[in-house]
Amino acid sequence: MHLVVLPGDGIGPEITAATTDVLRAASKCFQLDIRIEEHPVGHESLRQFGTTVRQGLLETVRAADGLILGPAATFDFKDEQSGEINPSKYFRKNLDLFANVRPARTYSGLPSRFGAFDLVVVRENTEGFYADRNMAQGSSEMLVTPDVVISLRRITRACCERIARAACQLAMRRRKHLTIVHKANVLKIGDGMFLEICREVARGFPGLAVNDILVDAMMAHAVRQPDRFDVIVATNMFGDILSDLTAELSGSLGLGGSLNVGAHHAMAQAAHGSAPDIAGRDIANPFSLILSMALLLAWHGERKGATRFEAAARAIESAVAAAIEAGLATKDIGGTLGTAATGRAVVEILASGG
Ligand code: NAD
C-alpha cells in the first residue's frame, strides 16, 4: 500500500510522526508492505514552494492508495491567488471525497460524564455553507459593499442522495439506526430537500429505523443522552460542528478521528485543527490521527478484499483502547505521556499482539 503523508501545521507534525510510527509497526505485524511518501503542506510548503499545496501533489495523491493529512492552520490562509490554499478543502474537492465519516465512542478507563456511547457522524463534505468549495469557480461568499456580505449555501439532490446512501449503508452494518440532523423548520427548501431525500433513500434499506432532529435541539440531545444515537447524517457545517461536540463528549477533541471518502479515494484526517495553543510541546493527543489512519487501512482492505488490512485496523483500534485503559495517554484524557511516547505505547501494545 502506497500512502502519501502530509504533516501540516501546528501539532500536525507531532501527531503525524506518532501516527507513522504506529503505521510502520502495523505494516510489520500484519505484512502490509506499506510505503510512506511524505511531503510538506501548509506553512512549511508556503515557505519552501510559495504555496500551501504545491503543484503536482494532487497527481501524486491520485496515484497513491490513500492520503493521511495533518491539520493545517487554515485560518491563516487568506488569499488563494497568492498560493494560500486550504489543503483540506483542496483534497476534498479535487478528489470528490463526499463523505466525512467521524466516529465517536467512549472508552473503558476514561470516565465519561455523559454515559457510554458509540456513534458515527456522517457529514456531507463537498457543498453546504462551505463557500470556498461549493462553486465550480470562485467563492459563494461575496462582499456586496464594504459593510454587506452575502454567503450562499449550496444543496443539491445528487449530493444529498450520495451522503444519505453512505450513511444508510453504514447504519446497516452497525445498529441499523439513522438520525437525520437538519434545520428544515427555517431552511425550508434546502434542508427540506435534504430531509426528504434522506428519508427517501432510507426507505430502500428495510429494517433501518429512521428519525430526524432539528440541529439546535440535537446539541442538547447529544449531551443529554448520546447513547440514543448510532449513525447521524448531516449537511456539511452542521456535521462539522456536531462531530467536534461528539468527540469532546467521548473524552477529548484529541480522540476525534475521521475518514474522508469518495468513490475512488480516501483521506485520513483528524476532526480537529492545528491547535496552535499546544503546538511544539509534545502534549497533543495523537489518537485522533492514529484512529483516522486505522479507518483508512480498513477502507483499503475492504476495497481490495485484503483482510489483513482490516485486521490491522481492528488491532490498532484495540491497541488505542488498551492504551487508554492503562492510562498510557496524553494529559487531555488524564494521562501523563507526551505525544511521541503515547505513539510508542500503541506500537508496543501492537507488537506484543494486543
Ligand atoms: P482546534 O481544533 O485546532 O483546537 C481546539 C481546541 O482543542 C484547542 O484548545 C486545542 O488545543 C484542542 N485540541 C485540538 N486537537 C487536540 C489534540 N489532538 N490533543 C489535545 N488537544 C487538542 O481549533 P482552533 O484552535 O479553532 O483552530 C486552529 C487552527 O486550525 C485554525 O487555523 C483553524 O482554521 C484550523 N483548522 C484546521 C482544520 C483542518 O485542517 N482540518 C480543522 C479545523 C480547524
Tell me what the structure shows:
By secondary structure, the chain is of the alpha/beta class. Helices cover 41% and strands 17% of the residues. The protein contains 11 helices and 12 strands. The strands form 2 sheets. A 10-stranded mixed sheet has the order 2-1-3-12-11-4-5-10-8-9, sandwiched between helices. The longest helix has 19 residues, at 307-325. It is globular, with a radius of gyration of 20 Å.
Q: Note poorly predicted spans.
A: none
Tally of individual helices: 11
Helix percent band: 40-55%
Distance between the termini: 23 Å
Strand content: 15-25%
The largest β sheet comes out as: 10 strands, mixed
Main β-sheet, spatial strand arrangement: 2-1-3-12-11-4-5-10-8-9
Q: pLDDT average, as an integer?
A: 97
Which kinds of small molecule does this entry bind, naming each only once?
A: nicotinamide-adenine-dinucleotide
Q: Structural class of the helices, strands and pairings?
A: alpha/beta
SSE order and pairing:
Blueprint: E1 2-6, H1 12-29, E2 35-38, H2 43-49, H3 57-63, E3 66-69, H4 87-94, E4 99-105, E5 118-124, E6 141-145, E7 148-151, H5 157-173, E8 177-182, H6 190-202, E9 209-214, H7 215-224, E10 231-234, H8 236-249, E11 259-261, E12 266-269, H9 287-304, H10 307-325, H11 339-351
Parallel strand pairs: 1-2, 1-3, 3-12, 5-10, 8-9, 8-10
Antiparallel strand pairs: 4-5, 4-11, 6-7, 11-12
Helix pairs in contact: 1-9, 1-10, 1-11, 5-6, 7-8, 9-10, 10-11
